[in-house]
């Protein structure tokens, strides 16, 4: 049969489809700090050399949440009960609810009704909490209650001094150290379009979260185990935020492994702008499905 225009068009379409079918569509690629390709196994092997792992996520990214669960599960095999989990997504005054739920004193429905859970709790954070509960691991609510962070936003660290001793148990020791020249805090001011010498309390509200998370990580850091902490990547990128406070508070040198999550149009190589964010950087396609 002679080839006509329609036949040639069909052949072209089929060739394109077969070619597209043969292309890989990786869901993620892990890189080292300098952009060198790495792997999940490298990340898992490196973790036990550290006291603390700060796993920076994008809150609506399913790949980050899946890898958090897998890394926690694999570290539990290595550490057993010496693995402690903790998260920004749980405020310190909810610790009693976590403890009561883990101890079987309250039902899950009561825990979910009273704890200040994020809207993606069921899909993204419940698996981590249940992993800890089912294996008798500690799970620590590390974040400052949001009402107290709001006080700092309005009145600076000084506003917290008026709180009761009971309230202060949910916050890092006051006053916290603070360096307004840290690039991450300066960038917050620029992104918000704030003047250099105005609204200084805006980054302080972020800093009190970082300080409180670091405070509770150290408080529950196992002597011969590892603390795996889940937080937004901006809380630990570039060795700032939580890590800066951990080093400020600790009397002993700490070995801290950082992980960050970024989105890129392509994950074949790490974008230059994402170099240096963390020890391991998980690059995820920008088109990846979001959890909310």
Describe the structure.
This protein has 292 residues and is of the alpha/beta class. It has one domain: 3-Layer(aba) Sandwich (Rossmann fold). It is 42% helix and 16% strand. It contains eleven helices and seven strands. It has helices spanning 5-22, 40-46, 62-79, 95-102, 108-114, 121-134, 146-155, 165-168, 183-191, 201-219, 242-249; strands at residues 29-32, 52-57, 83-91, 139-143, 226-232, 256-264, 280-285. A seven-stranded mixed sheet has the order 1-7-6-2-5-3-4. Helix 3 packs parallel to helix 6 and helix 9 (183-191) crosses helix 10. The chain is globular.
Number of strands: 7
Beginning-to-end CA distance, first to last residue: 53 Å
- How are strands sequenced across the largest beta sheet? 1-7-6-2-5-3-4
**What sort of overall outline do the alpha carbons produce when their principal axes are compared?**
globular
Q: Which sequence of SSEs, written as H and E, runs from N to C?
A: HEHEHEHHHEHHHHEHEE
How is the main sheet built? 7 strands, mixed
Overall number of structural domains = 1
Approximate strand percentage:
15-25%
Poorly predicted segments: 13-18
Summarize the structure.
This protein has helices spanning 5-22, 40-46, 62-79, 95-102, 108-114, 121-134, 146-155, 165-168, 183-191, 201-219, 242-249, and strands at residues 29-32, 52-57, 83-91, 139-143, 226-232, 256-264, 280-285.
Task: Offer a few descriptive terms.
292 residues; alpha/beta; Rossmann fold
What does the secondary structure layout of this molecule look like, with pairings?
Blueprint: H1 5-22, E1 29-32, H2 40-46, E2 52-57, H3 62-79, E3 83-91, H4 95-102, H5 108-114, H6 121-134, E4 139-143, H7 146-155, H8 165-168, H9 183-191, H10 201-219, E5 226-232, H11 242-249, E6 256-264, E7 280-285
Parallel strand pairs: 2-5, 2-6, 3-4, 3-5, 6-7
Antiparallel strand pairs: 1-7
Helix pairs in contact: 3-6, 7-10, 9-10, 10-11
């Amino acid at each position: 049969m002679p080839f006509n225009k329609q036949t040639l068009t069909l052949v072209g379409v089929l060739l394109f489809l077969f070619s597209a079918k043969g292309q890989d569509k990786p869901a993620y690629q892990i890189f080292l700090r300098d952009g060198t390709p790495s792997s999940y196994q490298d990340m898992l092997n490196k973790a036990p050399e550290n006291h603390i792992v700060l796993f920076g996520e994008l809150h609506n990214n399913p790949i980050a949440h899946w890898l958090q669960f897998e890394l926690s599960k694999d570290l539990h095999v290595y550490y057993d009960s010496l693995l402690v989990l903790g998260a920004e997504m749980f405020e310190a005054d909810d610790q009693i609810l976590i403890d009561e739920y883990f101890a079987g004193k309250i039902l899950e429905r009561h825990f979910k009704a009273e704890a200040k859970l994020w809207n993606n709790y069921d899909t993204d954070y419940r698996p981590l909490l249940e992993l800890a509960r089912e294996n008798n691991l500690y799970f620590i609510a590390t974040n400052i209650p949001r009402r107290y962070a709001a006080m700092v936003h309005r009145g600076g660290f000084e506003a917290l001094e008026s709180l009761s001793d009971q309230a202060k148990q949910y916050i890092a020791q006051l006053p916290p150290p603070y360096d307004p020249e840290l690039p991450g805090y300066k960038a917050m001011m620029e992104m918000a379009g704030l003047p250099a010498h105005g609204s200084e309390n805006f980054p302080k509200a972020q800093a009190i979260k970082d300080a409180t998370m670091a405070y509770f990580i150290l408080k529950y850091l196992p002597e011969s185990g590892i603390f795996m902490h889940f937080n937004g990547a901006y809380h630990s990128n570039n060795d700032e935020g939580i890590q800066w406070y951990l080093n400020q508070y600790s009397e002993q040198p700490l070995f801290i492994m950082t992980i960050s999550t970024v989105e890129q149009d392509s994950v074949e190589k790490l974008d230059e702008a994402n170099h240096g964010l963390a020890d391991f950087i998980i690059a995820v396609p920008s088109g990846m499905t979001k959890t909310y």
